[in-house]
Sequence to fold (495 residues):
Amino acid sequence: MIGIGVGIGRSGSMASGSLAQTLADLYVARVATITNFVVPSYARVVAGYDALINAYATGTKAAFETATAMFADPSVSGYVLGTGTGLTAGAACARVGNMAWFDDNSRDLVQATPLNQPWLLVHTGTNYVAFPGVAGNFVSTSSISPVGSTQLDVKVKLNGGNPLATRTITAQDSGVGEGRIFGLEWVDATTGTIRFFFNSGFSSSVVSASGVGVIANYTGWIRATYSTDGTTATITFFSSANGTSWTQLSQTTAASARLGNANAPINIGANNAANLYQGNIERVIVSNTIDGVATRDFNPALYNASVSQTTIPSSTGEVYTLNVGTASTGFKAAFVDRTIMQGDGVNSRLTSGALTSRQFFTRYAALNPLNLIGPQYIIDGNPTEKHLLWKQGANIGFYNDANLIVTPTANRSSLFTGDYNNASSKFRINAGADNTGTTGTGTSTIVNIFTAGNGIVAANAIVNTLIDTGAGVINTDAQKTAIYNYIRSINNNAF
Fold:
């Protein structure tokens, strides 16, 4: 795909329409020359320029170029998927466009080494949860009553990714006897066969006689139904493209006792915090009668970042909580409601080409620091430790020879705004009060995401939006408020 979305949504008016559209036209013409570059939509690009033009009160292309050195956000400025390896195979971030430049591809954020590419979680209109298959990363409810006793109907919508076989997709499982009620998992990565666990203590299981084919990047539904007369159980497996019309894969009968009858959590992407799933899950529906109404419903479409970034409510009453563990490295499970990119805290890295040498400017960075364990460099310039945004234990530091700090909430998105302005520097979180002081006079000519300029001390974080002003441009409070409101809107009001 080259320049996808170019020319879409040109109708309608913008407050600064003609200039915003002129800049958008220049930008999409440039990125159309980049192989496999995806532009989310022309209208979204225009709206991005329009928001900054209004904030900066610029009226010409030259004025905009002076005011902006970096505008990068994969959901707005576009991206190129990288080769990647393992979890990130086919879902790595190779490039994020820099909308501040219209005629020079070298100033985009680029990482050409597959090993070092961040995880790019693309959102195409439907929310999902991405699971890395790493300890501590799964979704669960509190301990609740068993979903059924003589019948179960378990339907799961999978949304691509790189699943591993013999990993649990969903289960009601406390890990102990009567609280081990059911479980569903892939068995074989090539044939796509499915296993269903049942009976008290997971004492029985059945594998489908046929599967859905290769499970890597499988997008569609799978389903298992269970019924018993107390002596014989009948287990039937299905697949579906739409969750309505079902194709039977196989049916098996087996000796059956009753299901477990103790309270237990519903787990998504795990069974009792173990056997951790790798891949993307879009929906899980469980009924206590075959073809019956849902009694448990995990639906990421109900995720609302402005309300909670760690929980999803359910139409059936339970609440699902995201767990990400305590490790300082490794990709983390994430609710995906926009296109995002995540670093693993090991070697993920994106680097821009040479920008105009900068000493003083204003930076806006919308990001989720995940676990606040440091030191880890989220954004850095060149030379190393110039114009740095980094984790310092429970704090985020804003550093350029000297340091200012703010204290965010772990595992929650925030907007970090600051002026690198030597003795009159400022640093704030969201719309809070400024921490003022000195950050020094060092200069930088590039931007690094997820690591320092020398490629070390990488950050385990999610970076959504980065906007830096041009060299010597310090924004006013009014401009900061306008840009805050824009960045907040494209981040689904997460802060």
Q: What stands out?
A: DSSP finds five helices and 33 strands in the chain.
